[in-house]
Amino acid sequence: MTTRRNLFTTLAASAALAPAALAPAVLAPAVAVAGDKAPGKPQWGTGPEGQRKADRGDGTYLNPIIAGDHPDPTILKDGDDYYMTFSSFFSYPGLVIWHSTDLVNWTPVGPALFKPLGTIWAVDLCKHNGRYFIYIPAAPDGKPWSIYAVWADNIAGPWSDPVDLNIHDCIDPGHIVGEDGKRYLFVNGIRKIRLTDDGLAADGKLEPAYQPWMYPDDWIVENFAPEGPKLLRRGEYFYLVTAVGGTAGPVTGHMVIAARSKSIHGPWEHCPNNPLVRTLSTDEPWWSRGHATLVEGPSPKNGEADWWLVYHGYENGFRTLGRQTLLEPAEWTKDGWFRALGGDLSKPIKKPKGGKAGPAGFKLSDDFSANRFGAQWSFHDPKPGEMDRVTFGDKSLRLAGSGTSPADSSPLTCPVGDRSYEAEVTLELEGEAVAGLLLYYNPKAYVGIGFTGEETRTWQYAEDHAWNRQKLKGRRVRLRVTNQDNVITWHTSADEGKTWIRHPTRMEVSGMHHNVFGGFLSLKIGICCTGDGAVRLSNFTYHAL
Length: 545
Known about the structure:
The chain is an all-beta fold. The chain is built from 2 helices and 39 strands. The chain folds into 2 domains: about 45-125 and about 175-350, 5 Propeller (Tachylectin-2, Chain A), CATH 2.115.10.20; about 380-545, Jelly Rolls (Sandwich), CATH 2.60.120. The protein is globular and about 70 Å long.
């Protein structure tokens, strides 16, 4: 797989870039997160199943606004509504769209992408002449990177199949309409290309657009990597918000910068407040903050709307959760520039003016009476036709076997946003299958336990540890995973949860993140089935600790 760093290296020239014995379980007390009243503890609101939510119910919020793996946010203000989607990488169905009316409380609408295109990096969601578009960088089946587009006349879909715009060797598109009324995409570099009026083909050549502001040479960053251009027009200026410094690596690398111009064709003036956002210390609660979009807040009944920056960052001590979505207030200054006001985001912040609070998040527990693919479940790196493995029954989901291990099984995955949680599922084997419950990052990094009908399987360090197999007779077993601040405990039950047996090995997973294994992913709950046969899933439950 092409890495982001290698891609930037490849594009640099063309873009002219700058340089125990088995025993009944005794569970330890949970580590409280949401609602914990201990001094110095973050005080999130409490969402469904105890999940943390940003809205504290007192007129303030505490980041993240969407917890868990929601990187590279692209946000659209559409009247009184906001819509947002994120990089979905190898998860399909992908590009789940979320909705809010106050910028703080968000719920999923559904996925926009069903056809696998390989790994999906930072996209752009926009609306033009009443039609919604998502511009998608992807490299399917070993083909060169190109920009694709999907479109819909209703944000809830149906969405079109992907259209290849044949704009090659670039990522991170950002859509804008110029002063000439023409449509443009800006991409990493920072470069631009004109689109046809329907937005579904290139109408010109890719050309340099802006030489980004350069930070001091002694700053500790990953690499220069200009990326994530997001644009808006306000008054007589176009504003270009860009990320530089690398999206991971040192926590002080990723940052947000801005420029402005009276023409989409430049010249562009560097913002005197650069960088607008940057993590300065490992003591801060959010690391590697960047990839921002500037958005207007809800319109209050009286007075002027406020402005906000939406971007992503890693949570201090919990890189396993991936890059999470953050909201920071901004203000316009008298000289026509803007600046960020949120600082290190460690304290509650006043919610945006106006707007109407709606529901936040959704329950992850699933009785499989409805198809929740996209919003909750997805396949990791599926082959064409992967959904043929899935059959819904009477409050159950049948998953046909694939591959020989979790690594090549394209497991079902479910992202989470809590530091500590517990999940259970009942698995019933059919035929010569092996099935299990995982915490899955990618084929190189996962842990889990499974069973064959005769004995258990233990997966640690992405390996099957044959020495760690225990007798477990039965074709129907309930499995539990407890993740307590990255320490993992497994349990099995052969009688539907009446009695539990703790697995003899506890595991520690804090190192399963991008800086170790690459891929820009997160550690997700996973369910795998390998071999000839199938597994029937029922009664999946989740609650935050």
